[in-house]
Amino acid sequence: MARDTSPQCKQCRREGQKLFLKGARCLTEKCAIERRSYPPGEHGRGRIKQSEYLLQLREKQKARRYYGLLEKQFRGYYQKASGQPGVTGENLLRLLERRLDNVLVRLGFAASRRQARQLVGHGHWLVNGRRVDIPSYQVRSDDVITIRPNSAAGDVVRSATELTAVVPPWLQADHEALTGKILKLPERAEIDTPVQESLIVELYSK
After folding, report:
1. Whether this model's pTM surpasses 0.90
2. Is the model more confident about 193 or about 21?
3. Beta-bridge mates of residue 144
4. Is 154 exposed, middle or buried (0-12, 13-18, 19+ CB in 10 A)?
5. CA 61/CA 93 separation, integer angstroms
6. HEC states along 132-191?
7. Residue of 140, 54, 61, 133 whose CA lies nearest to 101
8. Distance from C-alpha of 118 to C-alpha of 61, rounded to nearest angstrom
9. Which of 51, 108, 154, 181 is the most exposed place for a label (fewest CB within 10 A)?
10. What is the Cβ-side half-sphere exposure of residue 35, based on CA atoms within 13 angstroms?
């Protein structure tokens, strides 16, 4: 499974905001953004000339890093979104939100998307009673997500639930039984991803 192994804190610093890539650490004063809010590298504190292309690129990179995708994977999602009816940018975010690893984070069952991918890849989760070990699995309305009986990851998942304050309205979570349900597909107003998807569409449309 292809994955990004670059330093996660540097990714947040490059984008200039918290992307919550390291779970609990991002909520403490040890967060890299709290310590060094400037971009990484020798010229991080220098003045960067802003351009339309740079704004579009940074927005795409921010979304890609937020969901933990490589460029080829992210472009594939864009191509799929552009072929669907409706607004391409909203379709893109909806596809990304429906990834199983992202849904586990939204439900509060994983502290980060990297942890969620590991839990899914090791077969700790069931969707509608069937084991799913593909992090990119697209959930659907009325899907029920449960932890595998006698899973060794139970304590890790319960620790993650303590970091969750709010579950999106398109999801339903039972943190005691460690089960979740997809009530409906997310609307744009219900997705709090810190990106302007219109800039991503402009970038890929060139």
Report:
1. no
2. 193
3. 181
4. middle
5. 14
6. CCCCCCECCCCCEEEECCCCCCHHHHHHHHCCCCCCCCCEEEECCCCEEEECCCCCHHHC
7. 133
8. 22
9. 51
10. 12
Contact 16, 66 (CB under 8 A): no
Check pLDDT > 80 for residue 57.
Answer: yes
Q: 3-class SS at 201? A: helix
CA distance 192 to 100: 17
165 by Cβ neighbours in 10 Å (0-12 / 13-18 / 19+) ranks as exposed
pLDDT in tens, 2-12: 566 666 555 55
- How far is 206 from 203, CA to CA, in rounded Å? 6
Max Cα–Cα distance, the chain, nearest Å: 55
User: What length is written for the chain?
Assistant: 206
- Which amino acid belongs to residue 74? F
Instruction: State the Cα–Cα distance between residues 118 and 139, nearest whole angstrom.
Output: 18
